[in-house]
Amino acid sequence: MTLTDLLLAQLLDPFRLGLIVALLYTAIRNQAATGMALPLAAGVAFIAIILPTTIGLGAAEPLGLWAVVGVGVVANAILLALAYGVWTIARRFVR
What we know:
Layout: H1 3-11, H2 14-29, H3 31-34, H4 37-55, H5 65-94
């Protein structure tokens, strides 16, 4: 499995997407107390580390854990940017 294949697989993972959406929802609700940047950055890193260590590497075994985690951080950042963009657009249409 190449890094491109791994990135595509992680971007299409519905469990990862659900965790990112839940992370964004929680960060928005707690924005007054904790801000947005630090909780989102910590959540992106946490999701990138926890998924391959608990579910397993599968076909990405030859790449190693740190390569999978690194690609996971990139995938999580892309998904978070998309989710934040959708939330921002939805918020503007509601108001």
